Amino acid sequence: MKQKIENLVSAINNLIDLDKPGVDDEMLYDVVFKTHTETIRPMMVDLRMSFDYYDPDTSYREDVDAYLNALKDFKKRLETLL
Questions:
Q1: Which residues neighbour 32 within 8 Å (Cβ) at sequence distance 6 or greater?
Q2: In angstroms, rounded to a whole number, what is the distance separating the alpha carbons of residues 38 and 24?
Q3: Residue 12: how many CB atoms within 10 A of its CB?
Q4: Which residues, at least 6 apart from 1, have a Cβ–Cβ distance to it below 8 Å?
Q5: pLDDT in tens, 6-23
Q6: Helices 2-17 and 60-79 meet at what angle, rounded to 10?
Q7: Alpha carbons 38 and 32: distance in angstroms, whole number
Q8: For 16-65, how does the pLDDT look when each residue is reduced to its tens digit (9 = 90+)?
Q9: Which residues are CB-contacts of 66 (< 8 A; sequence separation ≥ 6)?
Q10: 29 closest CA partner among 58, 52, 7, 50
């Protein structure tokens, strides 16, 4: 269980690290939500965990910010389990 949580935290960190100045918002949006679908979500399901976030559904940037902020909060909770 601990290793699975560590792997999830690492995947979250890798995703958060993609958010750098100068990265195109639409490209970042595509990568973030593809990574969520293909990597983050399956890892959460395996651990029987989930999280919710409010999707403002306004712009690529605001959608990414909302998701990553919620993911950062989720990561902090995960780290308390390690």
A1: 15, 18, 19, 64, 67, 68
A2: 21
A3: 22
A4: 47
A5: 999 999 999 999 999 999
A6: 150
A7: 10
A8: 999 999 999 999 999 999 999 999 999 999 999 988 889 888 999 999 99
A9: 53, 54, 55, 56
A10: 58
Pairs from 7-14 (Cβ < 8 Å, separation ≥ 24): 7/43, 8/40, 8/43, 8/44, 8/47, 8/78, 9/75, 9/78, 9/79, 9/82, 11/35, 11/39, 11/40, 11/43, 12/40, 12/71, 12/72, 12/74, 12/75, 12/78, 13/75
Q: Which residue has the tokens 């029987």?
A: 48
Q: Please report where in the chains the tokens 């973030």 appear, as a residue.
A: 32
Which tokens hold the place of 59?
A: 């712009």
Dihedrals phi, psi of 58, to nearest 5 degrees = -115, -50
Q: Which two tokens stand for residue 46?
A: 């395996």
